[in-house]
Amino acid sequence: MTRSLVIAPQWIGDAVMSEPLLACLSARGETLAVGALPWVAPVYRAMPQVAEVIELPFAHGRLDWAARARVARTLRGRFDAAYVLPNSIKSALLPFLARIPLRVGYRGEGRWGLLNRQLANVAGRPPMVDFYSALAGPGAPRGRPPRLHFDAATLAAVAARAGVATGAYWVFAPGAEYGPAKCWPAAHYAELARALHAESGLPVLLLGSAKEAALCTSIAQQAGQACLVLAGRTPLIDAMALIAAARGVVSNDSGLMHVAAAFGVPQAAVFGSSSPEHTPPLNPRARVLWLKEELQLACAPCFDRVCRFGHTRCLQELAPARVQAALESALAGQA
User: Within the chain, what is the greatest distance between any pair of CA atoms?
Assistant: First the structure.
């Protein structure tokens, strides 16, 4: 049996979209360990095909040569193959220093020698699931949606700790690590929270990182008694479980959007500066809202962190009632 190490991407959404690759490798008999930075490691703990998650003690954006060499020494002799998902030179160093015989990845930043099976770089912004799945080699399945899993007992326990019952709350993920050009306005989220709470009587849990706590607090203050702020107070593994057990999810194009999709939760996904052609929520119960064609926005998708024109029309002009209608469609399972 082949023992394989997968070097994970650094963003939550990309980690979710690597799941079909791991499923393919596992199905053909490879025993998988994933080397991941601590903030994405929980994603791989929701993938049953992963036998081991190795948290890598590397600082974001730094070479950390000594640390990589130290970790590599602990991995020598353990693996037959490595799949390097990020395109950076530093991500390919660990398998090379660990002397793993087969090292697979895209050419990336000119990683000659570090990888001994290289795929040519892909132009533009391809669908990320297929981008990663191609690392499995010829015949790798294309277009398979990512899937994550927690058992029912885990979901119930996490919900109880948050003071809610499974299926009896909504989740909003109003932040986006990439920048505000991805974020639907806080006032719109607050209006939608008030409407959902008034109609259903269910609370709205606001999830996100500590960086998004102020945004979530602002939404809660505008939404009356509708919201419970958990951003910055809930570890990612619990946030994932809360998403999996929610009645429905509303989010921007973010890592938590992909988490919701991988659990098959009814969801409304709001796109602004980015494109659903590149990173869609691969979930038949997802409804995507993007105003590019409707508003004839020549600037979309711009992939900017901040709107270059200062108006963010692609988000401002998306009314809360439309997002609520999309969420209701997702709940009803309509085409």
Answer: 61
- Identical fold, 3-136 and 152-332: yes
CA dihedral angle for residue 91, residue 12, residue 186, residue 297, rounded to 10 degrees: 70
- 3-state SS of the chain: helix, strand, coil percent to 5? 35, 15, 45
The two structure tokens encoding residue 312: 């963010």
Is 315 in contact with 295 (CB distance < 8 Å)?
no
- Tens of pLDDT, residue by residue over 316-334, are 999 999 999 999 999 998 5
Q: Are 191 and 224 in contact (CB under 8 A)?
A: no
pLDDT in tens, 76-96: 999 999 999 999 999 999 999
- Given a contact cutoff of 8 angstroms between Cβ atoms, the answer to whether 98 and 75 are in contact is yes
| pTM (2 d.p.) | 0.94
- Select from 212, 205, 195 the least CA-distant residue to 171: 205
Of 3.40.50.720, 3.40.50.970, 3.30.70.360, 3.40.50.2000, the CATH number of 152-332 is: 3.40.50.2000
Residues for the chain: how many in total? Answer: 335
Q: To the nearest 10°, the Cα dihedral for 204, 210, 213, 216?
A: -40
Contact 216, 251 (CB under 8 A): no
Name the residue among 103, 75, 74 with its Cα closest to residue 89: 103
Alpha helices in 55-103 (DSSP H): 65-75, 89-97
Name residues of the chain where pLDDT drops below 50. Answer: 335
Residue-level pLDDT at 179: 65
State phi, psi for 328 to the nearest 5 degrees. Answer: -65, -35
Beta strands in 182-254 (DSSP E): 204-206, 227-229, 248-252
pLDDT of residue 335: 47
Which residue is it, tokens 């429905």?
Answer: 248
